[in-house]
Amino acid sequence: MKLTLPLALTLGRVAAIPVVLALFYIPVHIAGHEVSRQLATVIYAAAAITDWLDGYLARKWNQTSKFGAFLDPVADKLLVAVCLVMLLQDQPGGMLAALVAVIIGREITISALREWMAELGARTHVAVSWIGKVKTGFQMTAIGMMIWEIPTFHLPIYQLGYGLLFIAAVLTIWSMAVYLRAAWPLMADNN
């Protein structure tokens, strides 16, 4: 396996997860101000950007690999799941728990569906759709805003992120329905 820049970006996304987690919980002070969550957000944002960049570069430079194709969605799901659980632990609540359950539950369901469809030789039936990409954009932005937390430019950043997470959860359900609908004919025929 050759270490290409796209693969290094994907590996970097995985490596960023414990760094974001540590920064979220361990106080860091700069010039008398605690900036832990803001540093965590910067690392998280860099990792989230690589979600798009690694695939783009791999296709553009013809550096795709089987390992990269496997690791890319795993890295995305780990980053999202760890950050959602971290946020829920920080501010537990029934509504946030429901949103986290919907988002993580969908990721598990679609991952299992894709694996099953691949075994049938029909993985293209559940390829990433535009709604999945939009959902990811809302989800990644919401999580970043919620990690940042502090109001900025007089804007309630955490609350705005929470609102975006609601939208992401709706898009999550919608995208799951699209994938399940696409796979349903094969699911119904395969007893």
UniProtKB/TrEMBL annotation:
Protein name: CDP-diacylglycerol--glycerol-3-phosphate 3-phosphatidyltransferase
Residue ranges of the TM segments: 40-57, 94-113, 125-148, 160-180
Species whose genome carries this gene: Solimonas fluminis
PANTHER family to which the protein is assigned, alphabetical: CDP-DIACYLGLYCEROL--GLYCEROL-3-PHOSPHATE 3-PHOSPHATIDYLTRANSFERASE 1, CHLOROPLASTIC, CDP-DIACYLGLYCEROL--GLYCEROL-3-PHOSPHATE 3-PHOSPHATIDYLTRANSFERASE-RELATED
Pathway(s) this gene product operates in, as recorded in its UniProt entry: Phospholipid metabolism; phosphatidylglycerol biosynthesis; phosphatidylglycerol from CDP-diacylglycerol: step 1/2
Keyword annotations from UniProtKB, A to Z: Lipid biosynthesis, Lipid metabolism, Membrane, Phospholipid biosynthesis, Phospholipid metabolism, Transferase, Transmembrane, Transmembrane helix
Catalyzed reactions: a CDP-1,2-diacyl-sn-glycerol + sn-glycerol 3-phosphate = a 1,2-diacyl-sn-glycero-3-phospho-(1'-sn-glycero-3'-phosphate) + CMP + H(+)
Record-stated family: Belongs to the CDP-alcohol phosphatidyltransferase class-I family.
Record membrane topology: Multi-pass membrane protein
InterPro entries, alphabetized: CDP-alcohol_PTase-I, CDP-OH_P_trans, CDP-OH_PTrfase_TM_dom, CDP_ALCOHOL_P_TRANSF_CS, Phosphatidylglycerol_P_synth
Sample GO molecular function, one term: CDP-diacylglycerol-glycerol-3-phosphate 3-phosphatidyltransferase activity
EC number: 2.7.8.5
